[in-house]
Design brief:
With 318 residues, this protein is mainly alpha-helical. The protein contains 13 helices and six strands. The chain is globular. The protein binds heme C (HEC) (2 copies).
């Protein structure tokens, strides 16, 4: 695999595979990511090493937190049970779920229960986690009272150690540093050219990611192996911000805002598993969830084809 070889040579692959804590914030390019606004709460989540060393935490609780960490980092161990694509939680929540501008997950433990616009009611942390299973992992979430859900909740809560409850003004939360307003011209051909130059070496010429010895090294960006049409990442503005602040791996912040938008537009103009909220008609589903889908390309026409107009839910049983 020549592309992986060349990565080993330029060191990026090494950074990814062997250093656990690659410094995404001040990258090798020296690019600085957006600062928090004055007055925002900044959190430094504890490290797994500190958990292992900690003698004050009850050993049974420690086991449960470590199990949650393991599920978060390698959600693929539940492929065919909770997960029906090739992603893990850490594929989008980088830095083990603690990194700023990579949607750090700990705020779910300090800001929920709260009202959520996506589903219009007050959500628990279990429901928030379940949402990422259903959409981002195209999956079926673990039961709220299961040991697997408990361990994930414990991992989120432990990451939040020391953070104030119901503080909503959090620096580096989410991905969305670019805002929701796209620059005027988004064009698939422009995005494709950038993709081939800056992303294909890891994510594959056709967005399908790269596997080695049947182990996924780089995750797919579209198709059955990736997030579905209802996932937050399928919104162009969300993907644009994720890309700007996290990709290419090892060089976060190196793309211009416009390049990040063009790439997000191009990637999210590709087919992926059906939105689990599908009503049987893509037009209907787009309209019914317009608050969400106004930001996706679902139900819009690309090269004469209506995106999302299919029954394909990937590997997930219908
Ligand atoms: C395909 C990418 C993707 C994957 C994979 C993914 N998520 Fe998410 N997650 C998102 C997006 C997008 C958001 C919303 C971020 C925003 O609001 O800007 C999010 C938000 C969250 C939040 C809320 C964070 C907050 O600020 O309140 C939690 C908790 C969370 N995810 C947990 C998980 C867990 C646990 C998994 C694995 C079971 C997972 N996610 C897998 C994309 C993903
Ligand atoms: C050096 C390899 C590498 C390069 C180059 C790279 N990525 Fe990634 N990308 C990754 C890895 C690895 C992950 C998952 C993070 C993890 O598992 O730690 C990822 C995750 C993602 C995700 C979220 C997960 C998914 O599968 O949807 C998106 C979107 C993404 N990359 C887009 C891009 C874009 C756009 C570019 C080009 C600007 C790019 N990447 C360049 C390695 C790379």
């Amino acid at each position: 695999m020549t592309s992986v070889k060349s990565l080993i040579i330029n060191g990026l692959f090494l950074m990814f595979c062997c250093s656990g804590a690659f410094a995404a914030q001040t990258s090798v390019s020296g690019v600085i990511l957006p600062d928090a606004k004055p007055g925002q709460y900044i959190h430094n989540p504890p490290t797994i090493e500190s958990l292992i060393k900690n003698k004050k935490i009850n050993p049974e609780l420690k086991k449960v937190i470590l199990k949650g960490y393991d599920i978060f980092m390698n959600t693929q161990q539940f492929r065919g049970k909770y997960v029906f694509n090739q992603l893990s939680c850490k594929s989008c929540h980088m830095g083990e779920g603690g990194l700023a501008w990579s949607a750090p997950v700990w705020p779910a433990a300090t800001t929920l229960p709260d009202f959520r616009g996506k589903n219009g009611h007050v959500n628990s942390i279990e429901e928030r986690i379940a949402g990422c299973f259903s959409y981002s992992l195209n999956g079926i979430p673990p039961a709220y009272d299961s040991a697997d859900m408990l361990s994930l909740v414990a991992y989120h809560s432990w990451l939040a150690t020391g953070a104030p409850m119901y503080e909503n003004n959090i620096g580096g939360r989410g991905f969305s540093s670019l805002g929701k307003t796209k620059p005027v011209f988004l064009n698939d051909a422009v995005g494709e050219k950038l993709y081939q130059a800056k992303c294909a070496m890891c994510h594959g010429d056709n967005g399908q990611g790269i596997e080695q010895n049947e182990r996924l090294v780089f995750p797919p960006l579209w198709g059955n192996g990736s997030y579905n049409w209802g996932a937050g990442m399928s919104r162009v503005f969300t993907a644009a911000s994720f890309i700007k602040n996290n990709m290419p791996l090892g060089l976060p912040g190196s793309l211009s805002d416009e390049e990040a938008w063009q790439l997000a537009w191009f990637i999210n103009g590709h087919e992926r598993p059906q939105d689990p909220r599908f009503t049987g008609s893509v037009e209907n589903t787009r309209e019914g969830f317009y608050n969400f889908h106004q930001h996706t390309r679902y139900g819009t026409v690309l090269n004469g084809v209506l995106l999302g107009d299919h029954q394909n839910s990937g590997e997930k049983p219908n």
